[in-house]
């Protein structure tokens, strides 16, 4: 049972989901400013790739990227056990495991010790990132689901920005605290997320799928904006319960009694097709080259642009601020313009930024360095607007309830394995082929444009159950058509039905 109802509950859910992704963002950004710090390179000379160091760039890439392997295994744990554990328990377990990993990293004195800590923390983050978007989506109303996830991912980038400024501030501290404090700070965010989840409800869709109908009805009532004015037996709540129950029955009839392999099969509801779209969105997010900048922006500013270490840290901090500001844009546009338009806008802009970045780095002049820095800022703007939140949202929106946990876990695993690829090869690529590194990311972004345009349906303002209708029938519908009924939550559809009984298929539910 929850003590909050209506909009306060919705905001508490969004804040807690955001806290989990703030932790995710902080994890991503924290290593960027530590790799070239005096205390870090003194403790780990094997990965000191600064001008005075003789460390291995390949080993540096492995130490940073091994975190993604932990995240990948965390996503696989969700794939196999997430549906049984439930959304809340998965997230709480992720917070505990991540805290252990953060403690191991903060206390590391050797490369193997650091690697173990990063893997353990990664497992916890993999559990969180596989589950939080699903939990959040299943507790959101159709007309604000995109906005809620956009806020969540904006907080994620606030975490990246926080990491950059913590690194910059600690660069003035002598001794091991220079890198140990930033690594240990992850534990604070994990505790906040754990406590938030402890006080908030389970997904009503998971509850109905596990025959806890009374609990689900209470949660569906509690998340109504006017919950204080209606009862749990209100028509709006009953309609939601009936619609979700119907979707579960249809999903189970299209599957083989909940078989694990359903996610890999196409049938009347195109399970595999929908899973591949979610995985493709996560692949596009990483192959855009964003983590080339997120993990190694300080290295890029020093090696490719020619800045001093202190200036590189400072510019990285301002880059994080600009990145965060860009993520505020989709909060107001994602449910107005839709997912497809923002993704196309981002891919086109990112392609141009990477192409210009390649040319400026190849030029090597001071003026070109200024333009290169501008392109790094601009790339983050395009990414923050269109490819940051949406790939995390689509797996939860596209996948039907019977396979939603497993489909989202596979999409998240795809994200982490491609993140590992990018983070692993970046130091070696910059050392060996320099500006050509940015050329192949420009090509990748260009290729995303036709993929998005021809294959990705628009779920804007549709309930998760209505999204199922886009994938049923002779062919996949890229857009909702009025002949399919009135889009949106039960409140809107009931109002339409009262005005015109022929306009919608909503029925009274006793």
Which tags fit this structure?
Growth Hormone, Chain: A; disordered C terminus; single chain; membrane; 2 domains; 510 residues; globular; transport; MFS_dom; mainly alpha
Describe it for me?
- The protein is mainly alpha-helical.
- It folds into two domains: 6-209 and 286-455, MFS general substrate transporter like domains (Growth Hormone, Chain: A, Up-down Bundle); 480-510, no CATH class.
- The protein has 22 helices and no strands.
- It has helices spanning 6-30, 38-43, 57-85, 87-106, 111-138, 145-170, 177-184, 186-198, 204-209, 213-222, 235-254, 271-287, 290-303, 309-326, 329-337, 339-363, 366-386, 390-398, 404-433, 436-455, 464-470, 490-499.
- Helix 1 packs antiparallel against helix 8 (186-198), helix 4 packs antiparallel against helix 5 (111-138) and helix 4 (87-106) runs antiparallel to helix 7 (177-184).
- The longest helix has 30 residues, at 404-433.
- The two termini are 23 Å apart.
- The model is unreliable at 503-510 (pLDDT under 50).
- One of its GO terms (molecular function) is carbohydrate:proton symporter activity.
- This is Major facilitator superfamily (MFS) profile domain-containing protein.
- InterPro entries: MFS_dom (IPR020846), MFS_sugar_transport-like (IPR005828), MFS_Sugar_Transporters (IPR050360), MFS_trans_sf (IPR036259), Sugar/inositol_transpt (IPR003663).
- Its main location: membrane.
- It is found in: Membrane.
